[in-house]
Request: fold
Amino acid sequence: MARFHYVFLFKLSLIIIILLRTCVNGKRFGSTKLGSKFTFVPTNFDVENAKNKEYEVYNYTQTLDHFNFKSESYTTFQQRYVLNRKYWGGTAKTFPIFVYTGAESNIMGDVEYSGFEMTLASQFKGLLVYIEHRYYGTSMPFGSYEEAYKNANTLGFFTSEQALADYAQITLYVKSNLSAEDCPVIAIGGSYGGSKSYFIH
Reply:
């Protein structure tokens, strides 16, 4: 059993080194920064046909404010998350759950055009969980973009701390729902989402 952990850690270290060497210089990718209202969604993405894909799209009833006990703190909103079980080995302790911490865009762009996270899942027989950041895509508190971005009161819940708590809530929910409490969780992401994956540890 100990040998497996060393092999797992060695392979994971190699993948991280390769990713760092190829991804640190953002100029190689020529990507455009996306704003909150004008986010990238693949033109061929169809919510109705998502069931035919290798992923499943869900909504989680998320708490608006994880840190206060005011009456409005218990308000909820629907937060989107996506599961990809294509390579998952199951609920044994040896099969990880890779949680992709969404950033400042619609999560479906990351799902449709995934790269290194699919490599990780295939190598380690992992489950992929993509979580959309609050205030982006369809994960809008207060029901709409206009209401969510209306003023300082509604934007007061748009913080990194709240997003980290969202990721933790959904991760715990998914683990419980799939009876995968013993599976290790590895948070991954890129750019702003990568910083969230670091902070969540």
Notes: The chain has a mean pLDDT of 81. Helices lie at 2-23, 107-112, 116-124, 145-148, 152-155, 160-177, 192-199. The chain is about 35% helix and 15% strand.
